[in-house]
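Entry 14. Ran structure prediction on the chain below.
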Amino acid sequence: MKQQSLMFSLIFIAIFSLLLLDPSPAPAFRSVEKSTLSKASRKSKPLSSSARERQKEVTLQKKTYSKKVTSKKIARNYKRTSRKKRLYAQKRSSKRSSGKAYKAAIVMNANTGEVLFKDNPRERLLPASLTKMMVTLVAMDKVRQGAIHLTDKVFISKDASWVEGSRINLRPGEVLTLEELLEAVLIRSANDAAVAIAEYIAGNQENFVRLMNAYAQKLGMKDTLFVNVHGLPSENGYDNVSSAYDMAILARELIKYPKVLQWSSKPVVKIRNGRYRITSTNKLLKSFRGLDGLKTGYYRKAGFNLAATAKRDDLRLIAVTLGSPTSKARFNATRALLDAAFNYYQKKSIESKKSLHKVKLSTSLK
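Output, structure tokens:
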């Protein structure tokens, strides 16, 4: 029994000695610890100059690539947007070019009153700032009568200075001559100047509008009714109305005053002792031979209007176009009409008169 217990003790001691002296787990633990320490030492170790340069190059390449990708995306989006804008512009231009260059038109011999061309001449439309031709006519007739003078000093009221739209920025209490105001009306289509003239002659706009309608009736302008002096839309919903025929009659009467053509033929004029420069709204002055007037008009509902007059040799013509869809359309159509009319008188033949009525009046005229 003692021998068995002794043997058991020896076996137990031998096994315990083997477990205690086995070196196999220790190297594994030491290798892990060594690898961990080596990584930490590598992280903390400073980079060499060549390694730093290489790292900078890699970073720069990444940034450059990123910028290229971003710029390509921006360019692609810009092209898409530009293409959409071009398509939209083409659609708008095609819609405009598909229609007529105006709603009504007329060409008249200013010397005889003969009508050479007409298209809806008696249709009642919105004259817009062509209204100011009547303002000028009333003023010039008063000057002819001696009731007023072009050198008269006109005091600017608050009402005149507050008028919107095309203007010469009149200030309350400012004083200009009547001639300066008339130049501003014809050349720049100044609404504030038109109100100042009306107040000076008739005391207020309402009285002056009565004068305008009286003159229209006297001239036989049966399609015309004025409700204000500047031609802008009225707050009460009533607007000035007229026709191409009536505007031609008005223009024919107005150009009897040489001073009017002297003003309307100027592309640029200076007022306020040369301190204020105003430019003409009539773009045909420099581009059409013999053209020296007369008046443009526009607001959105009315469209683009033009009453033009030109003289070659002893022949003077008047052309009126109302309701053009664009400013370019009104100028192109008016140019084409006047060219055809002058050619008719130059050739004096039936064929040329036919060609006048065959003029293609579209927004694509050049």
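Residues 104-357 form a domain with the Beta-lactamase fold (CATH 3.40.710.10). Will compare against last week's run tomorrow.
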